[in-house]
Amino acid sequence: MKFVGESVNRVDGIKKVTGSLKYVDDLKMSRMLYAAVKRSEYPHAKLLKVDITKAEKLPGVKAVITGKDVPNRVGLYLEDKTFLANDKVRYRGEAIAAVAAETHEIAQEAIKLIEVEYEELPAVTNALEGIKSDAPLVHPDLGDYKWGPIFFPEPGTNISNLYKIRKGDIDKGFAEAEHVVENQFFVPHIQHSPIENHSVIAQMDPEEALTIWSSCQSPFAVQKALSVAFGLPQNKIRVISPAVGGGFGGKAGTTLEGIVIPLAMRVKGRPVKLTYGREDEFINSFVRQGMHATIKTGINSDGKIVAVKNTFVWDGGAYTEYGVNIVRAGGYSSTGPYDIPNVWTDSVCVYTNHPVGGPYRGFGMSEIHFAIEQNMDILAEMLGITPIEVRRINGLRPGGSNATGQIVEVCGLQDCLEDVVDKLGWEREEKKPSSKPNIYIGRGISCGFKAPSMPNNVASSAIIRINEDGTCQLLVSAQDIGQGSDTTLTQIASEVLTIPPDKITIKTGDTDYTPYEWQTVASRITYCAGNAVVKACQDAKDQLFELAQIKLGVPKEKLILADEYIVAKGNENKKVPIKELALGLSMEDGSGIHGPIIGRGSFIPPDVKNTDKTTGQGEKPTAFWTYGCQGAEIEVDIETGKIKVKKVASSFDVGKIINPKLIEGQVEGGILQGLGSAILEELILENGIVKNPNFVDYKIPTADDMPEMIISFVENPEETGPFGARGVAEPCMVPTAPAIANALYDALGIRVNSLPITAEKVLKAIKEKQ
Amino acid sequence: MKHKINFILNNEEITHEVAANRTLLDVIREDFDLTGAKEGCGAGECGACTILVDRKPINACLMLAVEADGKEILTIEGLSVNNKLDQIQQAFIDHAALQCGYCTPGMIMSGKALLMDNPSPTEEEVKEAISGNLCRCTGYKKIVEAIMEVADKTNSAR
């Protein structure tokens, strides 16, 4: 292959290093208005009065809206939210009213003039409490809501989804197991913390056509949700995502668009902009859900796990329109990448009066693996085998079966495990103690896996147009949110058409002009959009061959593409440049046929089917699985309790590397994000109030935190992937935190069962051990 | 009340009137449409607004525009001279030292400031110089490598 597998420079490099790329907040429009939002002061309260009369009278205020203006409930999987609160508020910070004004300052001033009277209600601030039968109800009307058929809310409770796995015979499994142990773990809420805060501009023109410029991962999903919410036809809603300054899931689905649009509808012709500040970003954009895990395991003395019973209770927050699917993913992945015959899992999404849980890089996998992978080490120690050995014994192999009973065909987990063990040399070299008496060294390993958690039939499409000079425009709505899809999709097109990347311009994210893409989420773009690009290019190629066979007098089947030419196989002198056919074939008599070459490709992952509603068992519940392993070496200072991560080795089975330089960078970023969640990050919630909504009190990793990173890959091709590729964007952060936790145990014999593993927790654990 | 200030912005002499309470970031973004510097936090915690004032990196969100009077300001937009990328910009592309690109202008300006002050930094010095610039995408490794490559090139050219 000539272009796929090469470290091509990013196609968006120049505009990003020169600062010339315009993100949404960089856009300025004539007569633009600025929006501000009135937010709830209580985690749970009835709204007795929302009085906007004073705000409306403030000079410079052009529109004020409340929940009454947006009564329609929306949601990706479960329609449980309105864009502004109606009747009651369900978390502190929830939007109650919004203002559009001539300046940002006037908008802020107007917000202060909005008078709200509340009647405080008892709040649910812990998912384990919220699940109890006497808990206050966050959504008493849950039974009236609409949801997708693969979700199982329980009206009359705070449970918005209960996803079950029932594989084999759990009672028999435990009865026959030689050892049975139970462990508990907790993962707190964290924040995506993209450096770009959410930003949106909306403008409605006099003919009721709406244009939205949004920093969003999913222009078409936004278009659809807004169409439902505002009763506008989709052809009248144009969503443009000009650039996204980091997403990590936080800009999936719809976020603040629904607040700005009703304002824009009031002030037709004038664009209205809303940009979140950092505090808003921490509290009022999606957060990663908290999760309580209980894992009971039955294992035999030979190291084989025979039964596992998992209860995952997720703190979904005030609205779980998206979170219900994270909980589903946590359910069907609940064994981790291990082959276990008897499995019982309840994965429960619980409404609380906390900020709204939503998609976050890993989509539940980082959370469950923190529990599963520490549990594996606990089991290994109990049996006196190494953490590596217990994973060799139980780790999935081709022909094995996962939690859904699916027989996995392609599975490089064991290759990745051996790769990491080899790179770190742990089985060759004993650990050397530190020369400093207060520093202890630890080594920890963790496996991980993830599938794209998406509806079975999500669609992608691509269009490729060939210009007269042989260059191309590639159109997709997969969004480059930093992961590099503009570059890799270009490389894929180059490979099929033999046209180099610098001759292909990729355009994305404009629902009026670029073709449908479900969402840029789920580590699915290389696979799904990649397949659509392959198909579009093959379609173009087919059209070119139709014309070339006339031109060259060589049948189609005997034609190939080579270096921008259509060439007769075996007779390289018989050829025609692609560009000559770009607008159709000109005949010798001066007539022409066919017209411009426009390739189109559509793709839906093949044969992905629902699982059984009561057992969660199925033949092929996901498009693919990505497996991998990471090992971490850490230093712990027993005087301060501080952990320094010194080295992380990573290996993932990605099927086929499209761009070595980009995939390496993506994994490095995933490791740092995992490291942040391991030792630094927690959204501190007290009585429903976020206590640390800024980068001083909520630290994310800096360059100082960077460990040595050894990045490698395994390439067992994905049969249905473009050139064999599968996704890795999320999987690569999944094993990092548990590997660090396991390294801590290796260093000091202490286990911290909750994230983040702060210095305070380490010191406390050291003290308790003594 | 507005104040008249004189400063050099990307090699151009400027006279401008600003209100006393406006930040330099706000003024360069809103009045001059130089939007390479970003507001990520508005509190000097993320470094996305890093620009150079008299060759020193500063968080433009924390500096009042009136303080720019008499100063020389360089933003990411002024770094490429005659449409030719600065070495550090090219190095960021070559090393894939950027992903979403939102921290990139600030990161490059911090790196540039370091190299102007210390053309042969150690890796530790590079990390320290960019430790006030948050990046959520890259894991920093390729950023450090990109800046080190410019330093190495400068050294070997001597």
Automatic annotation (TrEMBL), chain A:
<dbReference type="Pfam" id="PF02738">
    <property type="entry name" value="MoCoBD_1"/>
</dbReference>
<feature type="domain" description="Aldehyde oxidase/xanthine dehydrogenase a/b hammerhead">
    <location>
        <begin position="18"/>
        <end position="122"/>
    </location>
</feature>
<dbReference type="GO" id="GO:0005506">
    <property type="term" value="F:iron ion binding"/>
</dbReference>
<dbReference type="Pfam" id="PF01315">
    <property type="entry name" value="Ald_Xan_dh_C"/>
</dbReference>
<protein>
    <submittedName>
        <fullName>Xanthine dehydrogenase family protein molybdopterin-binding subunit</fullName>
    </submittedName>
</protein>
<keyword id="KW-0500">Molybdenum</keyword>
<dbReference type="GO" id="GO:0016491">
    <property type="term" value="F:oxidoreductase activity"/>
</dbReference>
<keyword id="KW-0560">Oxidoreductase</keyword>
<dbReference type="InterPro" id="IPR046867">
    <property type="entry name" value="AldOxase/xan_DH_MoCoBD2"/>
</dbReference>
<dbReference type="Pfam" id="PF20256">
    <property type="entry name" value="MoCoBD_2"/>
</dbReference>
<dbReference type="InterPro" id="IPR037165">
    <property type="entry name" value="AldOxase/xan_DH_Mopterin-bd_sf"/>
</dbReference>
<dbReference type="InterPro" id="IPR000674">
    <property type="entry name" value="Ald_Oxase/Xan_DH_a/b"/>
</dbReference>
<dbReference type="InterPro" id="IPR016208">
    <property type="entry name" value="Ald_Oxase/xanthine_DH-like"/>
</dbReference>
<dbReference type="InterPro" id="IPR008274">
    <property type="entry name" value="AldOxase/xan_DH_MoCoBD1"/>
</dbReference>
<dbReference type="InterPro" id="IPR036856">
    <property type="entry name" value="Ald_Oxase/Xan_DH_a/b_sf"/>
</dbReference>
UniProtKB/TrEMBL annotation, chain B:
<feature type="domain" description="2Fe-2S ferredoxin-type">
    <location>
        <begin position="3"/>
        <end position="79"/>
    </location>
</feature>
<keyword id="KW-0479">Metal-binding</keyword>
<protein>
    <submittedName>
        <fullName>(2Fe-2S)-binding protein</fullName>
    </submittedName>
</protein>
<keyword id="KW-0411">Iron-sulfur</keyword>
<dbReference type="InterPro" id="IPR036010">
    <property type="entry name" value="2Fe-2S_ferredoxin-like_sf"/>
</dbReference>
<dbReference type="InterPro" id="IPR036884">
    <property type="entry name" value="2Fe-2S-bd_dom_sf"/>
</dbReference>
<dbReference type="InterPro" id="IPR002888">
    <property type="entry name" value="2Fe-2S-bd"/>
</dbReference>
<dbReference type="InterPro" id="IPR012675">
    <property type="entry name" value="Beta-grasp_dom_sf"/>
</dbReference>
<keyword id="KW-0560">Oxidoreductase</keyword>
<dbReference type="InterPro" id="IPR006058">
    <property type="entry name" value="2Fe2S_fd_BS"/>
</dbReference>
<dbReference type="GO" id="GO:0051537">
    <property type="term" value="F:2 iron, 2 sulfur cluster binding"/>
</dbReference>
<dbReference type="InterPro" id="IPR001041">
    <property type="entry name" value="2Fe-2S_ferredoxin-type"/>
</dbReference>
<dbReference type="InterPro" id="IPR051452">
    <property type="entry name" value="Diverse_Oxidoreductases"/>
</dbReference>
<dbReference type="GO" id="GO:0016491">
    <property type="term" value="F:oxidoreductase activity"/>
</dbReference>
<keyword id="KW-0408">Iron</keyword>
<comment type="pathway">
    <text>Alkaloid degradation; nicotine degradation.</text>
</comment>
<keyword id="KW-0001">2Fe-2S</keyword>
<dbReference type="Pfam" id="PF00111">
    <property type="entry name" value="Fer2"/>
</dbReference>
<dbReference type="Pfam" id="PF01799">
    <property type="entry name" value="Fer2_2"/>
</dbReference>
<dbReference type="GO" id="GO:0046872">
    <property type="term" value="F:metal ion binding"/>
</dbReference>
